[in-house]
Amino acid sequence: MSYTGGGRIVLNSQREAQISRFRTWVLLAVPLAAIFFQVYVPQFFHFLGYLELPLLVVVYFALMRRSQIQGLLIGALVGLAQDSLLGSKNPLGMYGIVKTLVGYFAASVSVRFDVDNVLVRLLLAFFFFVFHQFFYWVMARALLGQQIGFDLQQTLLIGLLNAVVGISLFHFLDKLRETV
Amino acid sequence: METFLNRYRNLTVLLLVIFAQLVLLAVQVKNDQDVRMIRVWTVTAVTPAARVVEWLRGGSIGFVRDYILLHDTHDQNRRLQAELDRLKLENIFLKNELNTADRAKALGVFQEHTPSKTLAANVIGTGAGANAKVVFVDRGSVSGVQRGMAVVTPDGIVGKVTAAYPTASEVLLITDSDFAAGVISQKNQVRGTLKGQGSPVCKVDYVPIGEKVAVGDWFYTSGDDRIFPRGFPVGIVKSVRDGQPFQEVYLEPSGLQRGLEDVLILTEGVHQAIPDQAVANQPVYIAPPLPAGDQAAAQPIAGTEADKLRATYKAVGEAQKHTYGEGPPGTKPPDFTKLPPAGALPPAAPGSPANTPPAPVSAPPQPAAAASPAVKPTPSKPPPAPGIPVAERPHAE
Predict the structure, then answer these.
(1) For labelling alongside A106, which of A84, B202, B219, B248 has CA 20 to 30 A away?
(2) How far is A80 from chain B (nearest CA, A)?
């Protein structure tokens, strides 16, 4: 089976949607590594704090597994883990809820799109980053009553950066898929 | 249910996971008042339902209670409505009484200060015709009202008596198209004839072109018609146009502006001077008397030509010791060729049965001195002298 990706964007039918398989350690290690990167590396390189690697990992696994339940579970676990590492002032569940939704919707769209296509990956990574940031902002205001701002222009710019980085990350993670 | 969950398994799992995290979130987070969010959310979620249940319960109880008490409430409502209607009517009655008292007071003041003898009357009806500008007042011949008497209010002239019945009289309003009266402008002493138009506006006719009449000028009765004494306000000019052969002057009658309920019938008119300035409240304004040279116009109404003729014949009869109406048919009449001298004629007594009221004047007005050239009756009540205090002036009846 080849994962090089074709020229198509939309699949003709759901039968063409192939499910990628990963080893268990990959499903555990990669999210942990992304979370570790998220909480540790920006201490030394502040500009890397703009990268949302846990989100990209959730998007990737949800897209590749093409399962809504697995996608939302991955998102929930990664989100809760991220919440847990953000400090005691940050309540558990904020990133968990947002990433649960991201995992669910990413898995939902994966059955319609050729997720091996680079352009699709770029667009989906960009879209879900913006969705993630926006929904987090909504929840912070609605559930926590936090008066935080939402800079759309900055969000779009960082979303584009994350999408570009996601392309490379997704290409790297493709190497970790099981070959049939 | 199981089929439903299997069909929407993914969505169900999503909702469960989201809900679990929300609960987790709510357990941890506290709001500004140090209350955990789960408590806030729970209260927020439960209280609306409790409010709805309480609303339904209260509504049900209230409905049942109201239904049980409906009959009593209905009766009470009817009683209160009837009482409200009665109070409304009473309120209207009292307001009318107050207005009537005000008008009566105004009439009283006017009666007190006008030199003319007046008789207060109430309007009790209007003419039956659609275009008839006629009203009926509750004073008739029993009260001394005669055909031809002027009818006024403190604000101005109203009309004249066209028929006197025993207990009521018919008054032709100045707005009727058959009405005419001599008027004179206050500012430039321009004479004219007031004519009704069948509308709220009256026309001053026979005003020559070139005479200075302007909008806003007041017109007063000139006394030329021998119905209205000189000096009663008539109205204010609303428009002036050049016409052929006379100007077209339209004025708004001042006597009808405040409605027509109480009027004064001039049983004995006395000419007054036209005031220098028109005032809004006529009843309290005492106009100065006529100048000495205008005394001829200040005489009360003396009678008509028929009165003069009757007086002449009466004098002839008395001179020849002849009593009219006596003797059989064929009795020799008095010699009417032997008329007594003009100075020996007795004045025609106003108010005598033969004193026919003067007809409306529709011809162009004449100077006041020429209005009654032959008869100079003795005024029953002389005009007040200048400088006499109001309290000392002769009062009307």
Answers:
(1) A84
(2) 9
Contact B17 A100 (CB under 8 A): yes
Best residue in A65, A74, A94, A97 for a mutation probing chain B (most B CBs within 10 Å): A97
Q: Is B347:B308 a contact under the CB 8 Å cutoff?
A: no
Which residues 6+ apart lie within 8 Å of A101 measured at CB?
Answer: A72, A75, A131, A135, B14, B18
- Cβ-contact B220, B189 below 8 angstroms: no
What ipTM was estimated for this complex? 0.72
- From CA A57, how far away is CA A65, in angstroms rounded? 12
Cβ–Cβ under 8 Å, residues B234 and B219: yes
- What is the DSSP track for chain A? ---S--S-SB-SSGGG-PPP-B-HHHHHHHHHHHHHHHHHGGGT-GGGGG--HHHHHHHHHHHHH--HHHHHHHHHHHHHHHHHTT-TTSPTTHHHHHHHHHHHHHHHHHTTB-TTSHHHHHHHHHHHHHHHHHHHHHHHHHTS-------HHHHHHHHHHHHHHHHHHHHHHHTTBPP-
Percentage of chain B beyond pLDDT 70 is 73
Looking at B196-350, which runs of residues are DSSP E strands? 202-208, 218-221, 233-241, 246-253, 262-268
> Can you give the pTM of this predicted structure?
0.39
Where helices occur in B69-120 by DSSP H, the ranges are 70-113
Which neighbouring-strand residues pair with B191? B184
Could you say which residues of chain A have pLDDT below 50? Answer: 1-5
